[in-house]
Design a protein that fits this description.
Largest sheet: 7 strands, antiparallel
Number of domains: 1
CATH topology: BH3618-like
CATH class: Mainly Beta
Number of helices: 1
CATH superfamily: BH3618-like
Order of helices and strands: EEEEEHEEEE
Number of strands: 9
Structural class: mainly beta
């Protein structure tokens, strides 16, 4: 993974001049399974028209998540957020929010080769203006995908 800015590990992240606080996103509830890590620095890379983002924990640089926008891969979400989720995100409407999928590598169950997978049941929802995020866990995702553009 290529990272353009690196964070110094000494001192508090908000007191550290090496960290651009505009790139910090807070997850007040944590990310399920990683609840004790609530602040992440966001890294971004764009190549060949595709963008990828990394969330790296400000407390433990080994805790890193790769994110992509679902639209890049022909997916669109129809998410229903509760009033509590809107309150945590400090958002007035869904238009204020960005939706991202977490990528992971797993062995393919048929070939045994490593494959890249997107978690469509646990999108990351971020309010970029407030720099606050949550992971929305959904049991029945309403996701549409474009297999082939209609001509």
């Amino acid at each position: 993974m290529i990272k353009e800015d690196r964070m110094k590990k000494d001192g508090d992240v908000t007191d550290n001049p090496a960290v651009n606080t505009d790139k910090i996103v807070t997850f007040p509830l944590g990310i399920p399974g990683f609840e004790k890590y609530t602040t992440y620095i966001v890294y971004h890379k764009e190549e060949k028209g595709l963008a990828a983002y990394w969330l790296e924990s400000c407390d433990d640089s080994e805790v890193t998540f790769t994110l992509v926008a679902p639209e890049q891969y022909g997916l669109t979400y129809k998410l229903e957020l509760s009033d509590e989720e809107f309150a945590v995100l400090e958002a007035d409407s869904a238009a204020d929010l960005g939706i991202f999928m977490i990528l992971s590598k797993k062995p393919n169950e048929y070939t045994g080769e490593e494959s890249l997978n997107a978690n469509i049941r646990g999108p990351i929802v971020i309010n970029p203006k407030k720099r606050i995020g949550i992971q929305k866990l959904i049991t029945r995702p309403l996701v549409n995908t474009t297999i082939m553009d209609v001509i």
